[in-house]
Design goal:
The chain starts with a helix and ends with a strand. A hairpin with a 2-residue loop joins strand 1 and strand 2. The protein is α+β, with helices and mostly antiparallel strands. The protein contains two helices and four strands, in the order H-E-E-E-H-E. Helix content is 49%, strand content 25%. The chain has one domain.
Length: 88
């Protein structure tokens, strides 16, 4: 019983940490996106199971790669095609 409780608590703590880190990552990508120079172009996207990773290029030519744990990256990957201009 003690081992089962320990495993359950460990799994719940692990899931909680992942949830918090994903929200932080999404917020960081949102801040980066808001600071990017226009035009912002979707250079590449990759779908892994259900979620998208994206590579964006801003008006200065700087590339931004966001992983699939960002809700913003998932939204952009879902809504836009490669070489589309992303609106703010």
């Amino acid at each position: 019983m003690k081992t089962t409780n320990f495993i359950l608590i460990s799994v719940l703590c692990f899931l909680f940490v992942i949830l918090i880190s994903n929200n932080d990552y999404t917020e960081r990508t949102r801040l980066e996106f808001n600071q990017m120079k226009q035009p912002i172009i979707l250079k590449d996207k990759t779908k892994l199971t259900f979620w998208y990773s994206v590579i964006l290029q801003d008006g200065d030519g700087k590339l931004y790669k966001w992983g699939n744990t960002s809700k913003l990256a998932n939204s952009i990957g879902e809504l836009y095609q490669t070489n589309d201009t992303i609106s703010k």
